[in-house]
Design goal:
Blueprint: H1 2-26, E1 29-30, E2 40-45, E3 52-54, H2 57-67, E4 71-74, E5 89-94, E6 99-104, E7 108-111, E8 115-119, H3 126-137, H4 142-147, E9 157-163, E10 166-168, E11 171-175, E12 180-188, E13 190-199, E14 209-214, E15 221-226, E16 233-242, E17 248-258
Parallel strand pairs: 11-17
Antiparallel strand pairs: 1-4, 2-3, 2-5, 4-8, 5-6, 6-7, 7-8, 9-12, 10-11, 12-15, 13-14, 13-16, 16-17
């Protein structure tokens, strides 16, 4: 009897710890938690190679005050968020013993290794971030650059994308009786791979939807997507986010449905 009680107590303790951890992970948080204990910060506008770093307390305090305006909450399932060519800001926070990377967009935050966060009271004022960059970029601290924890210089690269579909010329054909597809990716220097689908056409990038993602490349980068009876005239966008927290790579696959004759 005593042994059973001990077992039940242990199960109860494990359950409480798990529930607390789950609650803490998904509870509403202030965005300025990102820069707590920052020794220096690095900024980079997405798709711009010009990254700058500063360890000025004035700059860190100013950024902290700005970020404190916003509340964020982790998204349990980021599938369904809209693909966007929106220009974001990559922020690296250098503490005493680690670097925290974050991509800031108007309505969401992406933190490699942690996932997507919704900005509850957005949009984030990107005009302020641009002004902040212009204010401090020219006076960045050389000392901070030399002392910061080194970030990998290797860029994200996609080497190959494969599917289980028949390929002809620029198209991958989806047979009428097929309801799922497998997509695998060979990549280097990558932390996360996102898989999007978007209608074909030059003006349809903003219509894309996230269909899957892979955050563990130890067994290869891949997803299996169940799409049911969907009729295709679309493209799959494979977006690789670099392990350096800055670089990205992108490949596309053109899809068409093939009907039985």
């Amino acid at each position: 009897m005593c042994k059973k009680i001990i077992i039940y107590l242990l199960i109860g303790v494990v359950a409480v710890v798990f529930l607390f951890s789950e609650y803490n992970e998904y509870k509403e948080k202030s965005l300025d938690d990102l820069v707590a204990n920052a020794k220096s910060i690095s900024f980079k506008i997405h798709n711009d190679d010009d990254r700058w770093t500063t360890d000025k307390k004035e700059a860190i305090d100013e950024l902290t005050k700005f970020l404190s305006q916003y509340q964020i909450k982790k998204m349990k399932d980021p599938k369904g968020i809209v693909y966007s060519e929106e220009v974001g800001f990559w922020l690296a926070i250098h503490t005493k013993d680690k670097i925290i990377m974050a991509a800031l967009y108007e309505e969401r935050i992406y933190i490699p290794g942690m996932g997507y966060y919704k900005v509850l009271n957005g949009p984030i004022d990107k005009g302020w971030l641009q002004s902040f960059t212009e204010k401090y970029q020219s006076g960045q601290s050389i000392d901070a650059t030399t002392k910061q924890i080194e970030i990998s210089n290797y860029k994200a690269r996609i080497l190959k994308v494969d599917t289980n579909l028949e390929e002809e010329h620029v198209w991958h054909f989806v047979p009428e009786d097929v309801k799922t597809m497998a997509i695998s990716v060979e990549a280097e220097n990558v932390e996360t791979i996102l898989f999007w689908i978007s209608p074909t056409g030059t003006e349809t990038w903003g219509e894309g939807t996230l269909i899957g993602y892979d955050i563990d490349g130890s067994d290869g980068w891949s997803i299996t997507w169940e799409f049911g009876d969907r009729i295709f005239l679309d493209r799959i966008i494979v977006q690789a986010l670099g392990s350096d927290g800055v670089t990205q790579a992108k490949e596309t696959l053109n899809l068409r449905s093939r009907h039985k004759e």
